[in-house]
């Protein structure tokens, strides 16, 4: 089951064998270069753990501190993994993926305990039909809101992957077109109060 990625890419690499899809294998794959990575793993805010067949321990773990030296070579991630984007926790995995690699652009991940994210084809079908990642996330999330309240989108929601053809090439993302005329920025004077100014003068 490619969860709908086949509607977006003509070439999808899947690893479903629990006895060979280990932490070691996953870390090696992260460095190879994929545009979109979708991982399903048991997780906490700071670590993915891979179990062997029949939920036996032994598949190893991927910790948050391992991501920066790995420099994952991917642009987009869907982390089907409990609590890994829990924004109340320092150094959570969701932020780790977003900031660890030179190509990282956006991460979809859960901030709460969950038991498998479903109906994911909505995300990939929307991306295949020119939705930006933010719109694709919204379309999926609206239809699954009561089940996955804590799912987050980290990064730039305006990026789109599809450009009128299927591809499995090196990262070729682009910004989604802005609907309607662009608006000029309106300048506002920053309040000098010590309570709201980003860099107040103490005194």
Give an account of the 3D structure.
With 203 residues, this protein is of the alpha/beta class. It has helices at residues 23-30, 67-70, 93-100, 121-128, 133-143, and strands at residues 34-40, 42-43, 47-49, 61-63, 74-80, 106-110, 151-155, 159-160, 174-175. The strands form 3 sheets. The protein has a 4-stranded mixed β-sheet with strand order 1-5-6-7, sandwiched between helices. Strands 2-3-4 form a 3-stranded antiparallel β-sheet. The longest helix is centred in the C-terminal third of the chain and has 11 residues, at 133-143. 34% of the residues are buried. Mean pLDDT is 76; it is low at 164-203.
Summarize the structure.
With 203 residues, the protein is of the alpha/beta class. The protein has helices spanning 23-30, 67-70, 93-100, 121-128, 133-143, and strands spanning 34-40, 42-43, 47-49, 61-63, 74-80, 106-110, 151-155, 159-160, 174-175. It starts with 22 loop residues before the first helix and ends in a 28-residue tail after the last strand.
* Class from secondary-structure proportions: alpha/beta
Please report the total strand number as a whole number. Answer: 9
Question: Which spans of ≥5 residues are poorly predicted at pLDDT below 50?
Answer: 164-203
Strand order of the largest sheet: 1-5-6-7
Helix-strand pattern: HEEEEHEHEHHEEE
- The quaternary structure here is single chain
Question: What's the end-to-end separation, in Å?
Answer: 62 Å
Please tell me what the overall shape is. globular
How many H/I helices? 5
Roughly what percent helix? 10-25%
Mean pLDDT across the residues is: 76
The Cα radius of gyration reads: 19 Å
* Biggest β-sheet strands, sense, barrel: 4 strands, mixed
Strand content: 15-25%
């Amino acid at each position: 089951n490619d969860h709908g990625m086949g509607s977006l890419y003509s070439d999808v690499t899947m690893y479903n064998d629990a006895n060979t899809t280990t932490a070691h294998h996953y870390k090696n794959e992260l460095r190879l270069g994929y545009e979109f990575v979708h991982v399903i793993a048991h997780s906490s805010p700071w670590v993915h753990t891979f179990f062997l067949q029949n939920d036996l321990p032994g598949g190893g773990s991927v910790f948050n501190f391992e991501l920066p030296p790995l420099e994952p070579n991917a642009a987009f991630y869907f982390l089907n993994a409990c609590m890994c984007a829990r924004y109340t926790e320092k150094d959570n995995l969701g932020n780790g993926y977003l900031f660890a690699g030179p190509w990282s652009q956006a991460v979809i991940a859960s901030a709460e305990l969950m038991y498998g994210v479903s109906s994911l084809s909505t995300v990939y079908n929307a991306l295949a039909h020119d939705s930006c990642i933010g719109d694709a996330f919204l379309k999926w999330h609206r239809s699954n809101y009561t089940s996955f309240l804590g799912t987050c989108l980290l990064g730039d929601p305006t990026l789109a992957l599809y450009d009128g053809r299927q591809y499995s090439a090196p990262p070729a993302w682009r910004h989604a077109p802005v609907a309607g005329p662009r608006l000029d920025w309106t300048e506002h004077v920053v309040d000098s109060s010590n309570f709201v100014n980003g860099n107040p003068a103490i005194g």
